[in-house]
Write a structure and sequence with these properties.
single chain, alpha+beta, about 210 residues, 5 helices, about 25% helix, 3-stranded antiparallel sheet
Length: about 210
C-alpha cells in the first residue's frame, strides 16, 4: 500500500500549495469555546451558546482528559446535551453526525450511539474526525486489535467537513474517496478498498491539510 502513498503526498502537497490562497481552511483553535447548534454557526465560528459544559467519556477504561469520543452535559442543569452539531471544549472541537448536514450518498448511515461527540483529529482544508457506524462490520474487525489497521470499509468511518459544500462527507471506500478528490481537484489514487486502512486514510488527509497549518 505504501507504494501509492508516497507519490500521492508529492502530488497533493504541490497542488495544495499552489491553491492555498483560494481554498477555505480552518486551524485548531479557530473556534471559541461554546455550543454550535448548526453548520452555519460552525462555518461562522460563532457559538450559539457559551453555557458551561462538562464531558464524560464513552469508554469507562479511557483515562484521557479529552477523549476521542464523549457525551457532554450542561454543568448547571446536569443535563445531557443532545441536539447541537458541535461543541468547542478546552481547545478541542467535537462533532456529532447529523443526516441533515451529511452528503446525500451517506444519509443511510447512522452512528452506533446517538448524541455522542467525536473529537476532530485533523484541521486544515478539511476538518477530519472518525465515528463508529451502525451495522457496518468488516471481517478485519474480527482479527485486528489496532483500529488504525481496520479497512476503510469497516465500521470506523473517516468523516470530513467540506467547507466549500457546507456538508459532511463520509469517506466510505476508494471509489468514494476518489470522487471526493476529483470534486476538489486533488489527484486521484489507485487503491483497494479492502486493503486501504483507516491509518493510511489519516495519513492521506494529514498530507492534504498540512500546508494549511504552516
Amino acid at each position: 500500500m505504501k507504494s501509492f502513498i508516497l507519490p500521492l503526498f508529492f502530488l497533493v502537497s504541490n497542488l495544495v500549495n499552489s491553491q492555498e490562497t483560494a481554498n477555505k481552511f480552518i486551524r485548531k483553535g479557530d473556534f471559541p469555546e461554546g455550543i454550535y447548534m448548526t453548520i452555519e454557526d460552525v462555518l461562522n465560528k460563532k457559538p450559539s451558546s457559551t453555557e458551561e459544559v462538562y464531558l464524560k467519556t464513552t469508554d469507562r477504561n479511557d483515562t484521557v482528559n479529552l477523549p476521542e469520543k464523549a457525551f457532554f452535559y450542561f454543568k448547571q442543569k446536569n443535563k445531557k446535551i443532545v441536539y447541537p452539531l458541535a461543541i468547542s471544549y478546552q481547545g478541542e472541537m467535537y462533532f456529532q453526525t447529523y443526516r441533515k448536514y451529511t452528503n446525500k450518498k451517506d444519509k443511510g448511515y447512522d452512528p452506533d450511539q446517538y448524541s455522542r461527540f467525536c473529537k476532530v483529529s485533523n484541521y486544515g482544508r478539511f476538518i477530519y474526525f472518525e465515528e463508529n457506524m451502525r451495522g457496518l462490520w468488516s471481517k478485519a474487525l474480527l482479527v485486528n486489535l489496532n483500529p488504525a489497521s481496520y479497512s476503510i470499509k469497516g465500521k470506523i468511518k473517516g468523516i470530513v467537513l467540506d467547507l466549500d459544500n457546507r456538508e459532511f462527507n463520509m469517506l466510505r471506500d476508494c471509489e468514494d474517496l476518489n470522487d471526493f478528490f476529483k470534486q476538489h481537484k486533488i489527484p486521484e489514487i489507485q487503491c483497494d478498498s479492502d486493503k486501504l486502512t483507516i491509518g493510511e486514510l489519516r495519513t492521506i488527509i494529514d498530507e492534504i491539510n498540512k500546508p494549511y497549518r504552516e
